[in-house]
Amino acid sequence: MKIAIIVxxxxxxxxxxxxxxxxxxxxxxxxxxxxxxxxxxxDEGLPEERYENGFSIHRSTWFRVRFVGMxxxxxEILRTIQKIDPDIVHAxxxxxxxxxxxxxxxxxxxxxxxxxxxxxxxxxxFTGLVSKTILKNADTVIALTDDxxxxxxxxxxxxxxxxxxxxxxxxxxxDKTPVQKAEGSEKKILFVGRLHxxxxxRYLLQAMKxxxxxxxxxxxxxxxxxxxxxxxxxxxxxxxxxxxxxxxGSVSHERVxxxxxxxxxxxxxSISEGFPVTILEAMACGLPIVATKVGGIPEIIDEEINGYLxxxxxxxxxxxxxxMITENCAIREEMSSKNREKARLFTWDLVAAKLEQIxxxxxxx
Length: 365
Description:
By secondary structure, the chain is α/β, with parallel strands linked by helices. Helix content is 42%, strand content 17%.
């Protein structure tokens, strides 16, 4: 089967959840014998055409001019689709489903759209206007979680298939050589993600002031970068917790793994989420989870089994749960074991097999 996948941004420059998920999705579909083409935007210093890990990457310039730039970009994507002549087009988010819609209308190629998070929960004005048309005309609609499925059905009432993201499990779990943690790692509190208001990191910092009072040697490690970094650094100073907070900036995926393997607990204080891959990665590394009960997170975290769920924007709850985990070895070990076990349910091998079946069912309709 020849598959074209449209995604706004792509590695190596962009390494957020959707970008990493799309890379692994393409890689595993190619391993299953499919001809996979990823169509994305062109980053400086990268070639327009590239073949790696069994799939092709096609990059087009996206002029950052409102409306006009997007229209030109869509035309380029449509031209690329016409050149590839795929059996199916897969749009990774509602935001970039326009070319998939037109490939169906003009080129008679069926398309699948997979909601990813903000495109469903907080769409921009344009996406909000066209989402009903995109969903109505899609041959198959996929959501990451049941919560996202309901949100998409509120946009347009139709059948929606739920397929979660996955992880490349062998990168995280090595049963033969377990990771040896350094002394004091149980007091390291890890966040991985964009430093953006939607991630709720300010509430984690407010919680850390309380955690520091009860567990003086606890330390929050914030892995990632973004537009809120300066504000968060200033907030850290104002709260007087500079000595127990580390800002690492952007790091490679390998370094993220290192941080996870040397932490004691993973925290995600987001205000809004779809299905965060970082939680799956932390689970695979055996980290207990403290996360907000938003989006699809409650579908991953079983309260008091493999983590704790807290209300969004509630630093008191975050602090209470973090202290509970950092000071209780039995809780950490039990949650660690449960998470390593549960992570095996979310592999890209399983996800790729589900997508393959969805594509086949879509094409034969």
